[in-house]
Amino acid sequence: MNHSLIERMRNENYQLVSIDLFSGPGGLCTGFKWAGILPLIAVEWTDTTVETYSLSHNAEVMHLSEYFDENGTREEYLQRFMYESTRTLLIHGDINLVDSEMIRDLLQARYGIDSQNETVDVVSGGAPCESFSMAGTRTLGDERDDLFSNIVRISRAVNTKAILFENVKGMLSKKNADGERGGIFRYICDTFENEDINPSYKLASREQENILLRACDYGVPQARERLFLVGIRRDLENVNFVYPEKTHGPGCANSYVTVEDAISDLPIVGMGEGDDVIEYQRPEQYQTDNQRRFVSIMRGDYEERGFDSHVPQHLIDAEIYNDHNVSSHRGPGHIQRKQQLLALIPPRSSMRATFQRLTETGEIEQYRHLFPNTIYGSRNRRLLWDEPSFTVTSHCLDEILHPEINRAITPREAARLQSFPDWYQFAGPYVQFHGDKVQDKYEQIGDAIPPLLAYAIARQFVQCLPHII
After folding, report:
1. What is the largest CA-CA distance in the chain?
2. Over residues 272-296, mean pLDDT
3. How high is the mean pLDDT of the chain?
4. Considering the domain boundaries, does residue 344 fall inside one?
5. Helices (H), 99-162
6. Number of domains into which the chain is organized
7. Who's near 429: CB < 8 A, 6+ residues apart?
8. Full domain range(s) for residue 232
9. How far is CA 210 from the centre of its chain?
10. How far apart are alpha carbons 69 and 89 in whole angstroms?
11. How far apart are CA 255 and CA 252, in angstroms?
């Protein structure tokens, strides 16, 4: 491993290195860094999401579209990145086109890592979840079901010590092409543990009670549930990965972090108010210990053993972030019909509950024109100040309302509920047609792994894997 990388790791308290596949905007990367794991290479295909990751983590971007240029400059372009560096390299493009040999060559040239002698510690990835999600079509034989195999392919190519695979709970029950319920989950697990291919990995667990983690149990102000599979290389017989113990909630030293803990210190903005960057002032007095800790993490000045949430130096140097501002805190504008609908929804209620109430009181005909034809239970629900948020999804703009103000949440409020720190820079438009290749801020935030949940898992890798330095 090259000297400059070792020095950087030592100076910034990194103990391990990783590869971040299907990286999204960098939620997992952020949590890994907080725990002392430095991502060396990341792969992501969405333009705005790549920009978010690069802006927030000072990653150097390599565009596969330029690499595959028809002008025959492929090797010449690749050579631009084959130099000693300590920056994360973010490969922008389709992971199916990322050659395993390219990854090995980049690790050797940039970071001095030879997979024959040294290797990265963790390869992580959360392949797109649309085909597994209970809210999706769950089409049998969906080609996205096999995207996860790229995680296994690259893991084996670099001889990584551990694999982390993240996805939605719906993956547990999705049928395979033969119609077998849970067949996709078993197929994925069996692929990880295939002993006929070297290196082979042993899963820490397949049991639902171990692999399903709720974000609110680890300090995230959100009742989000996700599946995490961990594989350890079979020859590392002394490495024993243990899933993290809960730190928040009943029976724990800490109560759940609530919506009030998470967002009540942010500047109050109404519908259509706020801006890309606005002034922020810390509360003179915190209401709870949870709020003090959470806000300190969000503002980038929290430290405890094994956890440093400092603001990246490149953002300070560029004067992009300071302790007196907050970004992407702009209340969405709503058409008049939506404004009138939101005005009907009282605190601690939802569109569906309001529709039912008006139906029971005989008032619904007066307001029926304000409601959509289908009343989805997940749409237009008000947050509760005294509880964690319900799941923040890529559709959160249409689903989550401020507890009291008649508007949907701002991107910054959504980011807080996901535990993204305030220094995080979200690129792209505020609102874009869902499904467009250009992901807006809400979709990026909702698709991400909550950094504090990623941190809880990353700590377990730091504890069980041998440190590089």
Report:
1. 75
2. 96
3. 92
4. no
5. 100-111, 149-158
6. 1
7. 48, 438, 440, 441
8. 3-247+448-464
9. 20
10. 20
11. 7
Two structure tokens written together for 346: 């009282």
Closest by alpha carbon to 155, among 202, 111, 187? 202
CA atoms within 13 A on the CB side of 22: 23
Rounded distance between C-alpha atoms, residue 213 and residue 450, angstroms: 12
Q: How far apart are the first and last CA of the chain?
A: 10
Asked whether residue 253 is domain-assigned, the answer is no
- Write the CA distances from 5 to 13, 111, 311, 381, 464, integer angstroms: 12, 7, 20, 47, 22
DSSP states along 154-169:
HHHHHT-SEEEEEEEG
Amino acid identity, position 358: L
How much is the average pLDDT of 148-166?
95
The two structure tokens encoding residue 260: 């009030």
Q: Rounded distance, CA 380 to CA 354, Å?
A: 10
Mean pLDDT of 365-370: 97
Match 């971040």 to its residue by tokens: 20
pLDDT one-digit tens code per residue, 218-265: 999 999 999 999 999 999 999 999 999 999 999 999 999 999 999 999
* Token representation of residue 154: 């690259």
pLDDT for residue 118: 79
Is residue 46 a part of any domain in this protein? Answer: yes
Cis ω for the linkage preceding 39 (within 30 of 0): no
Q: Is residue 267 part of a domain?
A: no
For strand 381-382 and strand 400-401, is the pairing parallel, antiparallel, or unpaired? parallel
Retrieve residue 418's tokens. Answer: 């996901």
Asked if 321 and 315 count as a contact pair (C-beta separation under 8 A), the reply is yes
- Answer for the pair 43, 22: CB distance below 8 angstroms, yes or no: yes
Selection from 244, 219, 96, 218 nearest residue 164 by Cα? 244
Confidence at residue 430, expressed as pLDDT on a 0 to 100 scale: 95
Which of 169, 251, 271, 177 has the alpha carbon at shortest distance from 213? Answer: 169
Residue type, 388: P
Q: How confident is the model at residue 438 (pLDDT cuts 50, 70, 90)?
A: confident
- Where residue 123 sits, what CATH number does that domain have? 3.40.50.150
Give burial (CB, 10 Å; 0-12/13-18/19+) of 271. middle
Match 């609908």 to its residue by tokens. Answer: 341
Buried-exposed string 308-330: b where 16+ CB fall within 10 A, e elsewhere: bbbbbeebeeeebbeeeebbbbb
| Alpha carbons 202 and 259: distance in angstroms, whole number | 38
Interatomic CA distance for residues 65 and 94, integer angstroms: 9
C-alpha–C-alpha distance, residues 158 and 125, integer Å: 15
Amino acid, single-letter form, for residue 444: Q
Contact of 15 with 469, CB cutoff 8 Å: yes
**Residue 397 backbone dihedrals phi, psi, to 5 degrees:** -60, -35
* Total residues belonging to the chain: 469
